[in-house]
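Data availability (excerpt). The following record was deposited with the supplementary files.
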Amino acid sequence: MRTSSILSAAKCLAILALPLVLSSCESTHPVAPVSTADARAALLNPNGNFWHQTAPATFWVRFETDRGDFTVEARRDWAPLGVDRFYNLVRAGFFDDSRFFRVRTNYIAQFGIPGDPAIARLWQNHTIPDDPVRQSNLRGSIGYAMTGPGARTTQLYINLVDNRQLDAQGFAPIGAIVEGVDVVDHLFAGYGETAGGGMRGGKQGRLFAEGNAYLDRQFPELTRLIRATLVTPANHK
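Predicted structure:
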C-alpha cells in the first residue's frame, strides 16, 4: 500500500507501498487535553458545544490495541463532516476501552461502539450528513459504516484490502493508516460476523445494551482498543 510517514521537523518522507495519496507535509498543532470530567460530560451530551470544534486540515491519531499500535492520518479535504466528528470523538475518548467487534479477513475491520452501554445508547442513532466520496476505499483507508444515505454515526471500518466496490455505495474514506498496517492485519478475525456484524446484520442490539460486559463474556478473543489519542509529529513514537 502507499502510505506517508509522519513528518519530521525538517522533511516529509513518503513510503511507497499503498496507492493512496496522503499529504503529511502539512503541519498540525498541539491539542489541549480534555479533562476526564469534561470528556464524560461531552459523551453524555451528543448535542453539546463540545462537538462543534472544527478539525485541523490534517491530523494523526494513534490507536493502541492489545495487538500493537497503528496510526491513522485523517484528511479534512477528503470528508470534512466525517473528519470533524472523528476528531471530536477522539478528543472525548469515545473509542477508549472498546472492541474491534467485526473483523472479516480480506475485507474490513469494524469498531466504534463504546464499551459503556450508557454512552453507546446515546450515540446509536446520532447521525451526521454524508460526505461525497472523494477517495477510493483502498487497503488501509478508514471510513464510516452505514446502512444507506444519512446513516453515519460513530462506527468506522478499516479496509484490509482494496474495496473499490464500496466507492459506488457511498462509503467515503476519511483518512488512512500511515503506520502499523501490519497490526491491523492481525486483529482477531475468528468470530467473523457473529460478535456484532455490520449495521445491517441485526446483531448489534446486545452491544448497545450490554457493551464490553457482553463481548468479553461471549467473545473474549476480540482485539481490544485500549485508547485512541491525537498525536503530533513531535510526540509520535
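Summary of structural features: The chain has one domain: 41-231.
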